Alpha/beta hydrolase (Actinomadura spongiicola), 167 residues
Amino acid sequence: MILLHEPNATAAAWGDLPEMLRSYGLDVVAPDVPDATGPRYIARASLTITATDPAPPLALAAHGAAGPLLPGIALAQRAAHRPIAAYVFIDADLPRLGRHPDPENDLPMPPDWPEAPCGYLRTPTDRDTAPDHDQAIREARLRGWQVTEPEAPTTLPQSLSKLLTTL
């Protein structure tokens, strides 16, 4: 599993999630891509993923504004012969077809995306702090994606692990 933090943040934003997922038996890579957005984020994350040489197929998980970057990162991984098994959006924005309003941040969108199952995980904290993700939830459901909205007692690693098994 590849955990992708929001642009202009660091892998430290995941806290102890990578280690907790490893305790569930998952192979986890959390690239640190500070101070990058758009295509630069995609390139830096892809280089880090390549350097760690994870065993395919990969599950790509993105948080927040990293969500729209998943198709570009997947394209780079597939070009390196690392197929994608699943996409997970954790309290994330969704990729959009069409041109980005800022030409400097045009994002690649493979014509066959998504070529793997997608899921959306909305954490209890996000429900309180980001009601704007309601639209992303509706859109994910309309796309036929698995949507998980666990209650507070469920931990993020448990919810994420469970969502992955359904994809």
Summary: The two ends are 13 Å apart (CA to CA). The first helix runs from residue 17 to 23. Confidence is low (pLDDT under 50) at residues 99-104. The chain has one domain: 2-166.
